[in-house]
Amino acid sequence: MKRSANKYRTPKAQENIRELEKQLSFKERLFSILAFKRGINRLSKWTLIVVLSLAAIVGLTYTVRCIFDSAYGSEIQNVNYTSKHNILSKQQVMHMLGISDDTDLDSLPIDELISKLNNHPAINHAQITKEGTDSLHVSIEEHAPIAFVEMADSAITGKTTRLYVNPEGELFSIDPKLHLRFNNLPVWLLNVGDVKQFIPGEKLNKELYEPILELIIASNAYELAELPAISTIECPDRYTHQWRIILHLENGTVVSMNKFAGIREQLYRLVKIISHARSNGKHLKNVEVAPSEYPSFRYAD
User: Fold this and answer.
1) How do beta strands 171-172 and 163-165 pair?
2) 19, 110, 148, 250: which has the fewest Cβ within 10 Å?
3) Chain-centre distance of CA 36, in angstroms?
4) What pTM was computed for the model?
């Protein structure tokens, strides 16, 4: 049997129903099943419209942001900086790299910037990496000076060039502003043949610089009241007394050591001799600490 269309669902029928409902009291209309269903339908309709509208707004915002980031990149919000020896500050490195708060992270030529830092005379090794979408990490390891170096024949040749040497025996240039706190380091005089070329980047023989490195580290363990600062270090060349290290202390005392013996033990004996001389009100002119059993010394007066 064919079902006839529901005549009450036509627009005209619905309008007639609403007109009839208006004749009812508020209480009757409030509890009317038809009115309740119609309210639910209207609420569902508007809820769906609101949800779809919010979804459209969020999607549009995300799309615009992606298009903007793609076209203009993202600015650096944070730069994490680490320095092994704290010689170069974060501000100095950022200035060298030309990086500021409004720098576009995506357009940074990372490899070029790393090369730029590694070519700086004060830097031994540098690394730059991106972190997330708006952060950068810059890590550097500076050359740590242990002494100035000059050629021993500079007074004869008239070419007085001074460089630094780091714990790895590598020579590098001096920057008066960056290395201001290293101005009191001792001067190590090199002989002809100790280095192929006296230029930054040249590396000394390990057997040559290791005793000097040990000497510098050991001397830093003493206070100036115990061991006066070392002003000059000389190592006679291979044709003379090559076993010697000659120290010129700032108080005028000249000390002779053996580079092949225990450096720390020799410095300990030197400190004892200096303490003994001071207790007697004497000033030392020369000290020979190489013989372990019978070190010798001579007073200036």
Assistant:
1) antiparallel
2) 19
3) 70
4) 0.65
pLDDT single digits (tens) 102-160: 778 778 888 999 999 998 878 889 999 988 778 889 999 988 899 999 998 876 666 77
Whether the Cβ atoms of residue 169 and residue 147 lie closer than 8 Å to each other: no
pLDDT tens-digit series, residues 213-227: 999 999 999 999 999
Helix/strand/coil percent split, the chain, to 5: 40, 20, 40
Q: What residues contact residue 25 under an 8 Å CB cut-off, 6+ apart?
A: none
CA distance 185 to 204: 18
Cβ–Cβ under 8 Å, residues 102 and 134: no
Helical pair 90-97 and 110-118, crossing angle rounded to 10 deg: 120
Query: Is the alpha carbon torsion for 235, 237, 243, 246 positive or negative?
Result: negative
The residue among 201, 133, 139, 196 whose CA lies nearest residue 164 is 201
